[in-house]
Design brief:
Number of strands: 2
Shape: elongated
Distance between the termini: 82 Å
Region (Basic motif): 29-60
Biased composition (Low complexity): 102-119
Strand order of the largest sheet: 1-2
Radius of gyration: 35 Å
Helix content: 55-70%
Domain bZIP: 23-86
Largest sheet: 2 strands, antiparallel
Subcellular location: Nucleus
Strand content: 5-15%
GO molecular function, one term: DNA-binding transcription factor activity
Length: 119
């Protein structure tokens, strides 16, 4: 009993603490590792596909916004020269059929939600 210690009335043997390593077949462990690596690569591939699609959709949105900005710049230049573009005339008169882009559809959708919220 000279190697063991008595703590709180119990005899403790010296040795390693914690969980003892289980005797796992090395081939099974290697196969699990390979399977985990395959799954990791598949997740990584899906993540990159998602990010590429996200980037391309954002690039398309940026191009559309740039085109819209150019259109507004042209309108401003025309108004600086004293000309009123037909699109602006149509917006001012409320004629939505002649304008390719009108904000009135967005406002009607938003007005439905704001009226139902009771604000």
């Amino acid at each position: 009993m000279d190697d063991s210690k008595i703590v709180a009335g119990k005899v403790k043997k010296p040795g390693k603490r914690g969980r003892k390593p289980a005797k796992i077949d090395l081939k099974a462990k290697l196969e699990r590792s390979r399977q985990s690596a395959r799954e990791c690569r598949a997740r990584k591939k899906l993540r990159y596909q998602y990010l590429e699609e996200l980037v391309s959709s954002k690039e398309r949105a940026i191009c559309a916004l740039r085109e819209e900005l150019d259109m507004y710049k042209q309108w401003c230049l025309a108004m600086d020269q004293g000309k009123i573009p037909s699109e602006i005339k149509a917006l001012l008169t409320g004629d939505e059929q002649k304008t390719p882009q009108s904000c009135s559809n967005k406002t009607t959708k938003n007005s439905k939600y704001s009226s139902s919220s009771g604000i």
